[in-house]
Amino acid sequence: MEPVHIIGAGLAGSEAAWQIAQAGVPVVLHEMRPTVETFAHRTGDCAEMVCSNSFRSDDDQMNAVGQLHWEMRAADGLIMAMADKHRLPAGGALAVDRDAFSAAVTAVLQGHPLVSFAPGEITDLPTEGRWIVATGPLTSAALGQSILQATGEGALAFFDAIAPIVHADSIDMQVCWLQSRYDKGETEEERTAYINCPMTKADYEGFIDALLAADKAEFREGETAGYFDGCLPIEVMAERGRETLRHGPMKPVGLTNAHNPTEKAYAVVQLRRDNALGTLYNIVGFQTKMKYGAQTEVFRRIPGLQNASFARLGGIHRNTFLNSPLLIDDRLRLRARPNLRFAGQVTGVEGYVESAAMGLLAGRMAAAEALGRDLPPPSPATSMGALVNHITGGADAKTFQPMNVNFGLYPPLDDIRGGRRGRKDRYPAYTDRAKADFRAWLATQ
Ligand SMILES: Cc1cc2nc3c(=O)[nH]c(=O)nc-3n(C[C@H](O)[C@H](O)[C@H](O)COP(=O)(O)OP(=O)(O)OC[C@H]3O[C@@H](n4cnc5c(N)ncnc54)[C@H](O)[C@@H]3O)c2cc1C
């Protein structure tokens, strides 16, 4: 049988290789490290964790990433099995001994009779055979250019400039109102596409002071080149002048406060819908290098966001990722070149676990295809399915930015939301439904 080839033996590529081999299909892993290095990796091992040693919450009742752990364990995931084996005490989080973890993943793959290694950098997207591209946020420059040629200008990003994303149900609509600037739009939905948070002069001055004083993360060497043009961090804008933001993303023009139409806001923070479900909103133009703790503190000063719950916080990073909603189908294939699947962070998911999960799925789909079957993704009411649904259609291609798994990606539970019950009831209901749907998906294979 022709092997499936995988480019990149990171979190996603390693998991994909395991899933393919376990399905009885031969697989070849092409990894460029340690011959070609990245600025973040240190070793030549598979599945190296480049920064923190945590897979985040392991709570599969109350947390969407914990639920994703559950799904990967249920699907015989190698990354979860080795993480469990090398787990360190970390309260409710799943933290691992990173070196032992990567060494174990490497040893298991090296010992598998259907896995072979072909060390070296792949510089061009292959045209023949069945391939999975899992080259991650630090995809080599040559391959990045080749992907760009295949997908077109603007379809591949080299940085993410992420504005924070807020759960819609945590926004105080007694303070905020729905309106697009100058009521622009053909339909009522378009004319009310933004959530607006009004600021008085005192609110604005206090906000700028907090922004200037906040703790910021340093850029790593080699990280900054090229990002500055279109997406200045808000704190850099504030440093350029106290009024800069009021003439930029916080300008109050073309908006009338529905709760107080006669009073003109001094500045307005706008949030734009981030997913088709309308459960997530991003704060427009608020990309930032503030540290996470500082972001929560500073953004909760915005009127209407005092109780905001964040699906993800802002950031600016070196990150190669596709505009997947435009380019990838729900079988994780490049629409224009269906012999190529993409997996991991390069598909626009964010995080070790999410990346490994996309590897798991791409691996299972590629193996099924090699065996003459078609494997659809799991239901969007599972963590894995919610991620695929988001990157291949749920997210808006125009503003697509990488995403962690979170309950905002899940289809709402009408009965429970309708009853206005709190998270304590809603989250276990989400994860119970996810487990049932995921078991049903596994049973089809
Ligand atoms: C600096 C930094 C810090 C991060 N910190 C965290 C964190 O703390 N927590 C978290 O959850 N996530 C973090 N991430 C995100 C994290 O990298 C990803 O979540 C995860 O590693 C992505 O998995 P992946 O398999 O998609 O990519 P990777 O794990 O990066 O694997 C991709 C592999 O492809 C190889 N490769 C690239 N190009 C080629 C080529 N042309 N030919 C052959 N091989 C190639 C690379 O060497 C690498 O081994 C961080 C990312 C970066 C860049």
Explain the overall architecture.
This protein is α+β, with helices and mostly antiparallel strands. It has helices spanning 11-22, 64-74, 78-85, 98-111, 141-151, 188-191, 201-213, 234-240, 292-299, 324-327, 352-370, 383-394, 414-418, 423-443, and strands at residues 4-7, 27-30, 54-57, 87-88, 93-96, 115-117, 130-133, 156-162, 165-167, 177-178, 194-199, 267-273, 280-283, 310-312, 315-322, 333-334, 337-342. The longest helix is centred in the last third of the chain and has 21 residues, at 423-443. The chain is globular and about 75 Å long. The two termini are 20 Å apart. The chain binds flavin-adenine dinucleotide.
Radius of gyration: 22 Å
Bound molecules: flavin-adenine dinucleotide
Distance between the termini: 20 Å
Residues in helix, %: 25-40%
Query: Can you tell me the CATH topology of the largest domain?
Result: FAD/NAD(P)-binding domain
**Strand order across the biggest sheet?**
6-2-1-7-17-16
Question: Beta-strand level of the residues, as a percent range?
Answer: 15-25%
CATH superfamily of the largest domain: FAD/NAD(P)-binding domain
Give the number of domains.
2
Poorly predicted segments: none
Question: What's the total helix number?
Answer: 14
CATH architecture of the largest domain: 3-Layer(bba) Sandwich
Could you describe the largest sheet, including whether it forms a barrel?
Answer: 6 strands, mixed
**Class by alpha and beta content:** alpha+beta
The shape is: globular
Mean pLDDT: 92
The number of distinct β-strands equals 17
CATH class of the largest domain: Alpha Beta
Oligomeric state as shown: single chain
